[in-house]
Structures are given as C-alpha cells and as structure tokens.
Batch of 4 targets.
Target 1
Amino acid sequence: MTLETIQKFISSQQWIFAKTMPQNPHWYVCKDKLPSTEDKQIFELFVQYIRDNGIAELYQGKKYICWYHEGYKYWTMGAPLENTIIINRAYSTQAETSDNI
C-alpha cells in the first residue's frame, strides 16, 4: 500500500463525528458504509498499514496502535482484521509522523 493510496482513501471519506464521546473528540469511518468493494479492500489494507507502521500507546489502560499523519492520528479498536469495521481519527498535537514509507 502506498502513501498516495492512503491519502486518496482518507480524503475521499466522509468522516463521521463520534458524538457519543465528546470527552474524546474524534471521527470515524465505518467499513460497512463504504460504497464499493474496492473501498472495503483499501479499508482493510489501511487497517493493516496502521498496525504495521503505527506506534503503541496507552489510552485508559488499554494499548492501541496509532499512526500519525498530517496532523491526525488514526487507530482501530484492535479486533482481528476480518472483524475490524471502524477506523478512528483525531486531531494530533504530535509534530512528528509515523510514516515509514
């Protein structure tokens, strides 16, 4: 997966604000709502990319793999790839990125 493919995927999505978590403002995209099979395949590749290239962080005592890119951090909830249906993102104050391309 190339960074260009990831960037196209990110910019083509309608990120939904997680209104049930105002204490942790973030947005998400849901695999089940994606319009095409190709988008769903890219979603899975992006999930794997986050896991392969991200940084482990603790949030409320649980470890998450977060990938930082262009002012955002991206993460999933850690379920097996075939069960992962959400990619989250939030604004990041971290100056560095975790791009390894």
Target 2
Amino acid sequence: MSGLHGKRCGLAALVLFILTIPVGNWVVLNVGTTCYPDGPCVIPVWPGLMSPSAVLLAGLALVLRDAVQSLLGNRATIAAILCGTLLSGLLSDPAVVIGSAAAFLFSELADFLVYTPLRRRYPSSAILVSGLVGSIVDSCIFLQLAFGSLEFVTGQVVGKFWMSLAAAALLYLWRRRRAAHAEGGAFA
C-alpha cells in the first residue's frame, strides 16, 4: 500500500480498533437474543452454541489490531492497545470494567506477540493464529472477571474465530488479486 494511502487506512483502523472497545462493552450488556440478569446478553454463533453478544466486536478488534500493526507499526500498535485499555476502563459499566480492561490488554498483547513473528512470511495465517490465541486469552479473562463464569467461553472463541477467518480470507484474496494485477493476469 502506498505511503499516504497506507497511513490513512492505518489511522482509520486505529480509530475503529479503539472504538470497538466501548461499543462492545455497551453491546454485551444491552443487545442480544437473550439478556441474563447480572450477566451478559448472548447471541448464537453456531447451532446450539451461544456467546456474549460483543463477541464479533471483540473479534473485529483483534483483526483491526493486526491492521494497525501492519500499516502503522509496532509503536502505534502498543499505543493503541494502551489507549483502548484506558478507554475501556473509563467508559465501561462497573460490572464489566475490570474484566474488559484486563481482557483487552492481555489478549491484544498475546495477539501482538503471536502476529509479529508470523506476519511477513504468512500474513493470512498470522491473522488466524494470532486471532485464535487472542480470542482464547480474551474470552477466559473477560468471562471470569466480568461474570464469574466460563460458561460461554467456547462460544466466545468460536465467534471471534469467525472474524479472524473472514479477515484472513479477505487478506488472502486481496493479496492474490494484487499479485495477479501486478503480473497483468486475468484475475486483476
């Protein structure tokens, strides 16, 4: 991606990444097919498998974090993780503030540590693997700290994995199209 275009896309990814946190914290308590008292609102992510409703936003956050790192670099990524953690802590409902902030911080750092060594050689796989690691860390920490239960951990991981899988597929197709276009192929 060219310099200025890449920076613009990176800044857009950074803003969206940070915004997924407060929006997700609101969604988990207010939007879903079922809302439990003193618990999350849930949605189906697979037949018979439910997850707290902010699962897709959390999965999107993991993918956007990878985009920020690819487009703006490691320092911007760490700054965005810290900013998102702070924003989450300031804006979250008291019931989810500790779980959300801790889950965001540690899952995004886990995603960062896995994605970084893989991204140059295996960009699509890096998104999948780092997203899976980040989603497991996020799900376990958030559910335990925010709601005192790991009841929905499988649904959380599956729902976040859908977002990582979609992003990896889009990245693969985009790179394939770009390579074909550069070679003057028919796929351009």
Target 3
Amino acid sequence: MMTTPSWFFWAALSACFAALTAIFAKIGLQDVDSDFATLIRTVIIVFVLAAFVWYADKWRDPRALSLGTLFFLSLSALATGASWVCYFRALQVGEASKVAPVDKFSLVLVAVFAFIFLGERPSMREWLGIGLVASGVLILAFKR
C-alpha cells in the first residue's frame, strides 16, 4: 500500500480550508465592507496563530533571523495581504463559484514564477496539467 506524501496531505487540507474560506467569507461579507472584513479576519488569524505557536513551543526570537529571511517573509506578508484584500473584494461582488477558480490561477503563476526565479523544471506532464488549469480558469472567467 502506498502512503500519501506529507506534502500532499497538507496541500489537500489547505485546499479544503481555502474552499471553506470562500464559502464562509461570501456569507460573512453580506453586511460589511470587504476591507474591514479582511482586517477582522487577519486579527483573528494573528491571535489563533500566536496561541498555536506558543502552545506548540515553536516561539523563537525573531531577531535571530537573518535579514534575508525577514525581507522575504515581509514581502510574502505584503503579497498575502494584497491577495486577501483583492479576494474579499471579488467575493463581495462576484459569485464564489467563479471568484475562487480565478483566484486559483495562482497555481499557474506559481509554476511560471518557480520556473523563472527558483529554477524549478516541471515535466511535460506537469506543464500539461498546469495548462489545463489555465484553460479551466479561462472557461470559467469569460461568458459566452
């Protein structure tokens, strides 16, 4: 019997939570501005993650991190924040079943950026899958 690699388990779980994010956010955005909702969501995430890191005894002195690590984590945080603001705005005005797949076009962009910046080389089979995802996004995004 084959065991599922750890990365796949966590990635699949992430996909499930991301799907729930879209559904819960769409319902929760009915009576609130999307930017304010993003702030509320972010504050809750900070408290939950802080409790998790403390409970799991994973807290370390952030001053011990290299400047490069802090720089790229800061860029990642800014990109995440921008993504959340855009995502919540899209959910507020669009259908979750259309917004979420377009948001997942990030999969295609990650593959392209990883090729350019990280030197990753997906196989032809993997590029085919990435191309199919891109095609699916385009089909969902544009009306007849």
Target 4
Amino acid sequence: MSIQAEIQAATGGFAIQAEFDAPQGSCTAIVGPNGAGKTTLIHALAGLIPLQKGRIVLAGQLVDDATQGVHVPSNRRPIALHSQHNLLFPHLSVVDNVAFGPQCSGLSTRLARQRAEEWLHKVGLADMAELRPAQLSGGQAQRVGLARAAACQPDVLLLDESLASLDAETRTDVRHLLADIPATRVLITHDPVEARVLADQLLVMERGEIVQTGTPEEVTADPRTPWTAGLLDINLLTGQAIGTHVALDCGLALTTATPMTGPVLVTFSPAAVTLSTAEPHTSARNTWQAEVARIQPESDRVRVLLGAPAPCHVWVTPQAANELGLSAGTRCWAALKATELTVREA
C-alpha cells in the first residue's frame, strides 16, 4: 500500500477521524459537504496538522505515529500538495515557479528548468513560461500550481480542489493529465464527473468521519446518505419495510418490487419519475401529488425539485416543462413504477 492512514486530528476545534488505505498509483477521491473535514484530512496527510491518535505511512515511510511520537515535517515527506490557493511566488516567472519544487528536491537548476518546461507544455502554458503570476488568469495560475506539484515527481500527490477554477474544456484536458501521473493521488472534489472518471475509490466524509468507502460504481449503486445520493444524482428516501410495502419517514407509502423487513434505504433515478397535471391512470404502482419547489434548467434538460410529501428531484425535457406549465408552486402528480425502486437495508 502506498498510503496507510489511521487519523484522529483536530484543528480550530473541529475534529476528524478517518482510516483508509490506497494502493500505489491509485487515485482516491474524497467527497463530502462543506465542513465535512476533507481539507483537514489532506492536511494531516501532508503533515500540516499533527495527529492526536493514529499513524500514517506514505510510500513505505512512517511519517506519523502518535504513540511513538513520530512526526515527519512536510518538507521531508514523499508528497506534493496542490490546493485551490496556488500560492505562486509573485517575484518569480512561471517557469521558475514550476522549477522551484524540483530544485528543492536536489535537481540542478538546468534540469529543474527543463522539467518545468516539460510540465508547462503538458498543461498547455509553454508560451507563458516567462510571465509573472500577476499576468495570469485564475485558471492559468491553477494549472501552473498543478504543474509545480507534479514536477516534483512525488510518490503521493495531494490535490485540494485543484480543478475548481478551470473552464470545462481545460478541466477535461487536465483530468486526462492527472490520470496519467504515476503518483498515488488523493483528490478532494465536488464534481461527480471527476470522482467517477479519476477515482479508483471514493471516500465520503460527513461531520468529520468517513461514512462510506468503495469504488465509484459501488457507491453509485448503494449511496448510504442523502448527501451522497445528491452528489451522484440519485434520489434517496428512508423508511420501514414490511414485504413490498415501505412506509417512508416523510409520510408517503411506496410499493416496491423487492420484499424487505425493517429499516430500508429506497433509491431511484430522477428520470424514473413521470410528472403530469392530472391524476395519472397508468400501470405505475406509486402515485402522489406534490408541489414544485424549484425549477433548474440544465443544458438539454430541466431539473424539477418536488417538495412534500416525498422531497426528490425529477428530470424532464424543456418541452415537457413548458407543456406542463411547471414553475415554483405548481401542483402536479408524480408516478413511479415499483420496478424502478432499489431497496436496501439501512
């Protein structure tokens, strides 16, 4: 394993507890709501926050052990850290900023500059090598910072929302670049596409703890919290099952195709729900009346957020939204087939 981490740490009165392993060359994506502890976890790996309990091994090197009193400083860890705050040196040119890391690792000025030029070419900024950071856009500075981190050729590359300020086209290019970096990568992201495309495993953090771990496919198939379901664009409701009858905690009752007993999680795709202005007479076993809470146009579709009794979101085409006259406050009917519901133990 390239990363073996058992972490209990605190900063500013906020505590986290996390445990995970990551194989050499893999990518681990950390996702979770704001304030979940994602950056605190990254900073603990980087050595910026000491452990209260636990231990961290990076690329075979013990860098933290709270019991033995081991704490290796950040500059002696086999890592590079890139955050959304690039912290470029304003007095250095772009190429010298990128060369700084390799030089600190012992590379000669000539070889460090050569490596920096190679990375600037990879991130599409070769023609800006002699500019100063103040002459760059936010997205360009982000790419320079990423090139500087990667140019160090670390065993472990820590990325704190490194793609956040990039435009859509550049973000796609940089994703491909990150996928080809041989380091073991740990990535904080709020982008479900990034998580699915880059990650070998997902860590879902909420309230300072890892609440779910798995491959993107495993987490998508079985989200365990409403936040996780929302990130992956899946509706999740909780309730009590008796056979194929589920009494949801929100007050609605659903019929499913899978008999269960006890507390359950019920998930379904936003595309599985059909909306109408009149009570439907279809084969769908589940129908209910709801009020539209919000409408969100999204390129070629419209996301309709429904309120009580079963808060969820639904996808419709722009044409369907117009024909149904949907807007905030509109009353409509929702229909959902039992076979579209996935039911698992809570």
